[in-house]
C-alpha cells in the first residue's frame, strides 16, 4: 500500500511564537543568537526552550532534557512551529523518552530540521501523522550567511504556494522518467541506523525517497544503501531523489555508488537535487504527494507544504 499524505500544519504568519529546541548536538551561543535574530526579522517570536542552549561534549544536555523540550513545545498550543536549532548527534537517544500518545492530542504544527533530525522527522510522521519540513536550522553555521537558502525556507513557512515546484539548476537523471509518490527520507545514515527501531518502516511502496549525507566515504554510503535495500525499503518504491553529498568523496565515485545500487530498480532516480548539507540548500516538504520528473529535474507538490 502506498503511504498516504500526512496532515499539513498551518502556515506561519507574523507574530507567531515558535519554539526552538536542540534535540541533538549543542550549538555555540553566538550561532543561536544570530539564528534567533533571523527568525525575529521574519516577524516571528522565537522562544528558546529551557534545555536548548545546554552544552556537552557532543550532546545538547541530557537525553531527558532534550526530550522534555520537544514534548513541551509540541504540546503547547501557543507555539505555531517547532524548529530544531541544529543537527549533530543525539536525536535517536531521546526518542523513546517522548510521550507520543500524549502528543497525538495536540494540534499539529510545522516542524523544521534536517541531518540528525531525520530521526525526528520519521518519528513525527509515524507517531503523529504530521507532514514536516526538511530544511536549514537557525544555529547551523551556513544559516546566517546564505541568503538564498534562508529565503527558500521563509517562503516555505509563510508563502508555501510560491515554492510548490523545486527545480534545482544542477539536477539531472541517473534513471529518467516520472513518478508520483509521497516524499519521505533525509540523511541516509540516519535512516539506515533506524532499521529495527520503533521508527522502522517495513516497506516504502509508492514513496519518493529523499537521500543526502555528509562526510561519508563512498564505501560507507554503499553500506547504508545496501542495508536499506536488504531491509526491503526499495521494494515497490516510486522514485529516488538524491541531494547533496558534501565531503563524501569525488562526485563521479559517489554517483557511481548510486548508479550501481539504484540503477536497476526500474524507477526514476534524480541526482544532485540541491538539498542537504550544501550551499543554497533547498527546503523540502516531507509527507506530501509530489511528482518527480527526473529528466526535467523537478519535484512538484500537489499542495503547498503548509495549509
Q: Please identify the oligomeric state.
A: single chain
Helix content: 25-40%
Q: Secondary-structure element sequence? A: EHEHEHHEHEHEEEHEHEHEEEE
| Outline type | globular
- What is the straight-line distance between the termini? 25 Å
Class derived from helix and strand content: alpha/beta
Number of strands: 14
Outline of this structure?
With 307 residues, the chain is α/β, with parallel strands linked by helices. 29% of the residues lie in helices and 22% in strands.
Structure write-up:
This protein has 307 residues and is α/β, with parallel strands linked by helices. 29% of the residues lie in helices and 22% in strands. The protein contains 9 helices and 14 strands. The protein has an 8-stranded mixed sheet with strand order 6-14-13-8-9-10-11-7. The chain is globular and about 50 Å long. The chain starts with 16 loop residues before the first strand and ends in a 6-residue tail after the last strand. The model has no long low-confidence stretch (mean pLDDT 97).
Please write out the topology.
Elements: E1 17-21, H1 29-41, E2 45-48, H2 63-75, E3 79-84, H3 91-94, H4 100-103, E4 110-113, H5 118-128, E5 132-134, H6 147-158, E6 165-166, E7 172-175, E8 178-187, H7 188-193, E9 207-214, H8 218-230, E10 239-246, H9 251-262, E11 269-271, E12 284-286, E13 289-293, E14 298-301
Parallel strand pairs: 1-2, 1-3, 3-4, 4-5, 8-9, 9-10, 10-11
Antiparallel strand pairs: 5-12, 6-14, 7-11, 8-13, 13-14
Helix pairs in contact: 8-9
Amino acid at each position: 500500500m502506498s503511504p498516504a499524505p500526512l496532515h499539513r500544519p498551518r502556515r506561519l504568519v507574523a507574530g507567531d511564537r515558535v519554539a526552538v529546541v536542540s534535540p541533538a548536538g549543542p550549538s555555540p551561543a553566538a550561532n543561536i543568537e544570530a539564528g534567533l535574530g533571523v527568525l525575529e526579522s521574519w516577524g516571528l517570536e522565537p522562544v528558546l526552550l529551557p534545555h536548548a542552549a545546554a552544552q556537552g561534549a557532543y550532546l545538547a544536555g541530557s537525553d531527558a532534557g532534550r526530550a522534555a523540550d520537544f514534548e513541551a513545545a509540541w504540546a503547547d498550543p501557543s507555539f505555531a512551529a517547532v524548529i530544531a536549532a541544529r543537527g549533530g548527534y543525539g536525536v535517536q537517544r531521546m526518542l523513546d523518552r517522548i510521550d507520543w500518545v500524549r502528543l497525538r492530542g495536540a494540534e499539529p504544527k510545522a516542524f523544521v530540521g534536517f541531518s540528525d533530525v531525520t530521526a525526528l522527522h520519521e518519528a513525527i510522521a509515524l507517531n503523529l501523522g504530521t507532514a514536516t519540513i526538511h530544511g536549514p536550522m537557525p544555529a547551523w553555521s551556513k544559516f546566517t550567511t546564505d541568503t538564498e537558502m534562508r529565503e527558500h525556507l521563509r517562503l516555505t513557512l509563510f508563502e508555501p504556494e510560491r515554492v510548490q515546484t523545486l527545480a534545482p539548476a544542477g539536477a539531472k537523471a541517473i534513471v529518467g522518467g516520472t513518478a508520483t509518490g509521497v516524499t519521505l527520507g533525509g540523511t541516509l545514515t540516519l535512516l539506515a541506523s533506524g532499521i529495527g527501531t520503533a521508527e522502522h518502516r517495513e516497506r516504502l511502496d509508492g514513496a519518493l525517497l529523499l537521500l543526502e549525507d555528509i562526510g561519508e566515504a563512498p564505501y560507507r554510503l554503499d553500506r547504508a544503501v545496501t542495508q536499506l535495500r536488504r531491509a526491503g525499503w526499495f521494494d515497490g518504491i516510486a522514485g529516488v531523489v538524491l541531494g547533496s553529498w558534501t565531503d563524501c568523496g569525488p562526485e563521479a565515485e559517489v554517483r557511481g555508488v548510486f548508479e550501481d545500487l539504484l540503477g536497476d530498480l526500474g524507477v526514476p532516480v534524480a541526482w544532485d537535487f540541491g538539498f542537504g548539507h550544501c550551499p543554497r540548500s533547498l527546503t523540502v516538504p516531507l509527507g506530501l504527494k509530489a511528482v518527480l520528473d527526473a529528466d526535467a529535474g523537478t519535484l512538484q507538490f500537489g499542495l503547498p507544504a503548509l495549509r
